[in-house]
Structures
1.
Amino acid sequence: MREFLILSRGGQGGVMASRILASAAVLEGLWAQAIPEFGPERRGAIVKSYLRVSDAPIARHSSVRRPEGVAVFSSKILELIDISKLAPGSVPVLVNAAKKPELVDRDVYYIDATSIALKLGLVIAGWPLVNTAMASAMARVFGIAGLESIVRALGEYFRGKLLEANTEAVRIAWDSVMR
Amino acid sequence: MARRVLMGNTAVAEAVRLAGVQVVTAYPITPQTVIVERIAEMVERGELKARYIRVESEHSALALVYGAAAGGARAFTATSSHGLLYMYEMLWWVAGSRLPIVMAVVTRSIGPPWGLHSDHHDALTVRDTGWIIGFASSVQEAFDMTLQAFKISEDRRVMLPAMVALEGFTLSHTAEPVEMPDEKSVSEWLPPREPLPFKIEPGKAFAVGNTGPDEVTMELKWLAWRAMERSRFVIRETDLEYAKRFGLRSYGGLVEDVYAKGSDYVVVAMGAWCGDLKEAVEKLRGEGYRVGLLRIRYFRPFPWEELREVSQNAKAVLVIDRAVSIGHRGILGLEVSSAIGDRVPVKNVIAGIGGVDTGPEDFYSIVKTFIEEYESGSIEGWSIPEWYMPWMGVVSK
């Protein structure tokens, strides 16, 4: 079983990203689970989302305590929380950032998901919706699912123009991850 | 058969749609709200032809489906925590009137302090009202149990309301793959409700919930008790029939036995964390411990026969509880002790209150400690419960 952690701000769509990835994994014949960790927070608060993917049914429902990969939806989050407490050791981190964040002793990947979202007009209430681009980047970096599965999974969550824009975001993001 | 990735709340809404529910009442409370929101969308899109009624309180939410069920409709509502407590009076009226109704209870702790996360206090506080009470342990089971609840509740031998408890967030907002039968095959299995045991309608004089002599009060209670006893068979039968008909799994009736029968040590628990517990049990078995899990699927009717059978040759039983009766033991611990009697020592651990995250490592430690205590002779007969609170540095008595 593989376990991942997403750190996002309420409104960025971290929970949706974990669901899209779960759907994509299930489309590939795997088992998956997407768990949000909500508190009484509102927009802007840091939200944790967990993703599990497995080739067998997943029994556990508790939080992910030892993720094998972490996605951070805003580089500002790295200033607010100590990532080494959530993902000790050499766990790779994928960050939504325009330039490479400085994190020592671990693999750091980054992608400018905000620019992708803004370019495609994926904005709600002033928040760039980076979730689909980040889901795609996560799938690529951590090897969670293939590009076409992510695209197919989008169809379970979006329709019409929103589906088109998000499909585009996913395709652009797939080839935009930097290291 | 469609396989979709759904949240627990959405899966319950899908089961309501497939059951062709005719009346739904809605009053929002986190973490239940998504259920009635999804149903509202289904009604709006014409996928479910139901009267959708927004009410001013949970008391009215249940009072209104009570009326709808008395009028012969298949009715549904959902709530959580304080919402369920606010329904308390109506819970007795619905069950006492022997009306089939299905209600989802998305479990959430009861204040103070205000909390959003799950324990089992809300659903277990209403154990004596005459409702069938089931506890799901996965999104798939929340779906299956909701659909089966209509069948069981409306069965002529039962005629009691049924509650499906699913844990807030842990199941309600967690997305997992769900296998769903199609509308046509469900409607063949679950045709529109026959308006039994009675139907109130305009122009026909009929009294429901009238005053009566003491003997009638007692007789009605006895009849409800008998119906609940019969529901054991109906629950087991429905579980098997559903699995066979739709090619889905049978869970085992009132309980799910995970290596429990024949094991020296039997762990009893209920709800979504049983998946985590199962992993811990499997790890311990791999290390040579003869331990199994008996997962309680239905709290009412309480599976005392299954418990007695499984514990017959066990050395000791451990009950891990997510609710406590202050002044006594954990609520599940009490029930298990009363079913087993003094034949086997029953240790009771309280954990996960207020939604405290409890994972496989926690269960491994809880279960291993229990086995070691028994083997060193420190578990005999009756004991007060232990509270599992690792952040306090100790597992405190």
Note: Chain A has a mean pLDDT of 93.
2.
Amino acid sequence: MKTTNHRAWLLVLPVVISVAFSAILPLITVINYSVQDIFGPFQRVFVGGEWFRDTLRDSELRGAFFRNLLFSAEVLLLEIPLGVAVALALPAKGWRASLSLVLVALPLLIPWNVVGTIWQIFGRADIGLGGFFLNNTLGLNYNYTNDPFDAWMTVLVMDIWHWTPLVVLLCYAGLRAIPEAYYQAARIDAAKPWAIFRYIQLPRLRGVLLIALLLRFMDSFLIYTEPFVVTGGGPGNATTFLSIYLSKLAVGQFDLGPAAAFSLIYFLIIQIFCFIFYTMILNLGKGPAR
Amino acid sequence: MGGSGQPRSAASPRPPSDVARIELNSLAHSYAPKVQRPGDYALRPMNLTWQDGGAYALLGPSGCGKTTLLNIISGLIKPSEGQVLFDGADVTALAPEARNIAQVFQFPVIYDTMSVFDNLAFPLRNRGVRGSEIKKRVQQVAELLDLTPDLKYRASGLSADAKQKVSLGRGLVRSDVAAILFDEPLTVIDPHLKWILRSKLKQIHQEFKLTLIYVTHDQVEALTFADQVVVMVDGSVVQMGTPQALFEDPAHTFVGYFIGSPGMNLLPCRLAGSAAYVGDHPVPLGAETLARAQQAVTPESRVVLGIRPEFLGCSAEENTQSGGVAADITAVEDLGNFKIATATLGGTSVKAKLSEDALLTPGRGWLRFPPERTKLYIDDRAV
């Protein structure tokens, strides 16, 4: 006989309430909006799945989606290896370790819109150090307000500057958690540096790399503030990511219905990608177990 | 070859030309950059020789420098003073991978993402051994360690004892390995598997005549495993000898106290005439011991009398012949196949191990110190 004690529910209640207010209720509101055409506070019409159909057919939105996908792919492909490399290069102990960690972590402490502002000014050809250097010293024709490629690169480099430190910190923590005996055994087994990285460090970084990958994917797929401040989504649509398009729809044009439908699809996409990454990494590098 | 003259078994991964007598030549190590006083040494200066093919245990309490010594022999640590010689050749500057030595660590080290086969093949692949040769060796070693059924599986799924066998196997596959160092390898192994694994080690030792150095703080483990036990305390080696020698002839009070259960009785005393006085009770000494003690003793030296509980006689009747010493017997414990009597002599508690049929009750009693078994220690060293 199993005894049941329903008082346990009381203990879970605070969490249930806070999650309800922070996630479930807003989500239900969004679902509610997504099936209605809202004209004003008291004027609304039920439209069923119309907004979902519209959203999936919207070519501008599809453009933003692929742009965002490309951006996230580039971010992951550049930031993860770079983060691992920097973490490997950092000193392991002593004051040098503390100093380099603080220096590496600095960009993480800067608020998003400030990061945007910094790079907006930094990239300007007239008063910005970076823009001036590229144009006058290297003789390139760099202008992120005009050239779609320059705008894209600016946003990408800004993201790398801002967020690679997160990957570095996670990997650094993962590396320090590897017991010394592994390195000692590797030395006795005459392992070369590459083999040490491949068979000791990388497998033991699996957990932190998974977290880094998920965080960086979600953040880059949701990116809003920084490109909004630097390029405002332009030139043209060159840096209009999903969230920028969404806020245009919801806040700029006050199309709450389509925006809500869009949000739900957006949410689903992120969930699916995270699930795929998660399962992939957990099963990576595993041979047949007993 | 270890003096055995036996032909090596066909499975032997080591050609018979490899011998390794390991010598430590005025070796010392300090983690501090500058040594100001003896206490700065993690390992105090020592000379020690490990014969080829011996099974050695390195025994001592935690933090006495056992692991440091082991890591110096394997090359993981470069000693701050002195030399390590393998068969007379100075290897002090050689990296671990260049020495013909393998090491097994306290916690099993396996390469998680590799199969058991790849784990065992790893040291050979890194050394550029041919594929067919690797396969042959790995299969031999897997056979020996009962790992054959696991070869194709991922090593991270194994139990702790199998993992430890894999790390041992990575040493055994190498044809150049002449000595294997163990750093408390059974710490994380279940008690009933410890015994099995230890027998396996003995079997391997007999089969391959490898030099084995086994670090432990467990005296039972050391005494059952090794032909020679090296006892360390506070960064210095206090005695190297057979388990029997450590028991019968401890060279240092620590050896007496650490080995044996209960440990040696150590009684502070002073020398006068032909006896050592514990409090005001004279204890007769052997003539040789006495002569050497009188030479070594100075007014400042700390003199301690030591006798194993196994050798200390204890009876209720007065023993008139050869110096019985009166003492208060405070307790007699019956431990099944023997009895332990606790007595007080000159303010110090002593224990005597008696046969199970000894008739003794607490109260007045007599202790007998057989002179040939009574040791004398001046400043902790046997005279």
Note: The interface with chain A takes residues 71, 74-76, 95-97, 101-103, 105-107, 109, 111-115, 122-123, 126-127, 150, 152-154, 156-158, 167, 170-171 of chain B (CB under 8 Å).
